[in-house]
Amino acid sequence: MIPVALFTILSTPYIDLHSFLAALFWTWLHLLQFCVSNQSLHIEEDKLNKPWRPIPSSLIHISTTRQLRWLLLPACICLSVHYRITSAGVLLSLAFAAHNELGFGSHWLLRNACNAWGYAMFNAGAVGIANPEVLKDGRLFHSFVYNGLVIFTTIHAQDFRDVEGDKIIGRQTLPIVYPEGSRLAILVSMWGWTSGLIATCHHGIHAWLSLIFGAVGLVIGFRFYCFRSARDDRMSYTLYNLWLVWTQIVHLPA
Q1: What residue ranges are annotated as transmembrane (predicted)?
Q2: Whether 107 contacts 100, CB under 8 Å
Q3: In 3D, which of 157, 169, 250, 154 has the Cα closest to residue 209?
């Protein structure tokens, strides 16, 4: 939620508290829909990778979770209609269903595409609630494209930590299909995006700040490549999310 919240604040020149809280609630409810949908499938994988989650830890029964999943879908659609962002809500829910129920999340290419699609719709929906007029700015469309491309080329950072569990259920994530190439790809793509965004979005970015973020992107990329235990990958993914926050907002229109 943090990247979406920052994107909404920084892309909206004038935003009142009520609109911002409404955007946050919409984002949270849709994120809940995704999590419930995702966690109610492939329980064996969660038992190994994330045993603390509600279903593996027996805090909620799977049948209850599936019922909640299909109750959240119309609730999210209705909320999107209420805020007049029906397209974003419907497309986001379709991304969830494609990733989870239709199994797109089991293949690295479709998985990355669903993630990029989802991030773009999260941003579009939240901004549309906070200030619909901002969506008419053509430059913001470029920001959606940038965000989608960054996610598509780097989001497999989340899959390194889950390799063992993903193998059990037959997922073909990038770290499983290309163990060495995927780590090299995250190193190159993180460094490339950091350098490219600094070069093309230099407005308002001080030289020292650019240098810091450039170094951070390179260090995190090298960390993924050099430190490969599950524990190291979890830490690297946490750092990746901090880097992702910056990449999501640096190219916003000045």
Answers
A1: 205-226
A2: no
A3: 250
- Residues 119-145 have pLDDT tens digits of 999 999 999 998 888 777 777 788 888
How far apart, in whole angstroms, are the C-alpha atoms of residue 210 and residue 181?
28
User: What is the DSSP-derived secondary structure letter of residue 16?
Assistant: -
* pTM for this predicted structure: 0.89
Question: What are the DSSP calls for 92-144, one per residue?
Answer: HHHHHHHHTTT-GGGBHHHHHHHHHHHHHHHHHHHHHHH-GGGGG-HHHHHHH
Angle (nearest 5°) at CA 22 between 17 and 24: 95
Q: Is 239 helix (H, G, I), strand (E, B) or coil?
A: helix
Tokens encoding 170: 């037959």
- Contact present, 74 and 119 (Cβ < 8 Å): no
Cα–Cα distance for residue pair 118/243, rounded to 1 Å: 19
Q: How many CB atoms lie within 10 A of CB 183?
A: 22
Tokens of 83: 């805020």
Mean per-residue pLDDT of the chain: 88
